C-alpha cells in the first residue's frame, strides 16, 4: 500500500502500528485511520484562517449580546418575566434535588465512573430493586 513501507525504512505499516499499540494498551488497543484527514500544511493554513474568522465571530457575537442586553434592559415586561423565571428555576432546581436524593445508592465502578444501579431509602429497598433488575443475582 502506498505510504506504508514499514520496518525497512519510511512509514510504519498498519501491522507494525497495531503490534506497538498492543504492547502499550494490551488487548484494549484500538485505532482509527481517517483517509480524509488534511496534511500538516493544510491544518496549519486552516488554523491561521480559523483564528482570524474566530476573532471576527467573537466581535460580532459580543456586539449582538450587547445589543440584546440593551433591548432587554429597556423592556419592562421582559424584565418581569425574566425575574419570575429565575425565581421559579431556583425553586424547581431545589425540589428536583430533593426528588433525586436517596439515602442509599448502589452500583459499580467501571472505567473510572460510578454506575448507579439502584437507589432507595433502605438497604432492603435497594436489594429489592437490584433483584428486579437482575433476577439471576448478577449484572
Summed up:
By secondary structure, the protein is mainly alpha-helical. The protein is 60% helix and 11% strand.
Provide structural commentary:
- The chain has 139 residues and is mainly alpha-helical.
- The chain folds into three domains: 37 residues, no CATH class; 47 residues; 30 residues, no CATH class.
- 60% of the residues lie in helices and 11% in strands.
- The chain has four helices and two strands; from the N terminus they run αααββα.
- It has a two-stranded antiparallel sheet with strand order 1-2.
- The radius of gyration is 28 Å and the shape is flat.
- 1% of the residues are buried.
- The model has no long low-confidence stretch (mean pLDDT 92).
Explain the layout of strands and helices.
Blueprint: H1 14-25, H2 40-74, H3 76-100, E1 104-110, E2 113-120, H4 123-133
Antiparallel strand pairs: 1-2
Key terms:
139 residues; mainly alpha; 3 domains; two-stranded antiparallel ribbon; 2 strands
Order of helices and strands: HHHEEH
Domain count: 3
Instruction: Outline the low-pLDDT stretches.
Output: none
The radius of gyration computed from the alpha-carbon positions, rounded to a whole number of angstroms, is 28 Å
> β content, as a range?
5-15%
Question: Helix proportion of residues, in percent?
Answer: 55-70%
In DSSP terms (H or I, runs of 4 or more residues), the helix count works out at 4
| Mean pLDDT over all positions | 92
What quaternary form is this?
single chain
Categorize the overall geometry. Answer: flat
Kindly state the number of beta strands.
2
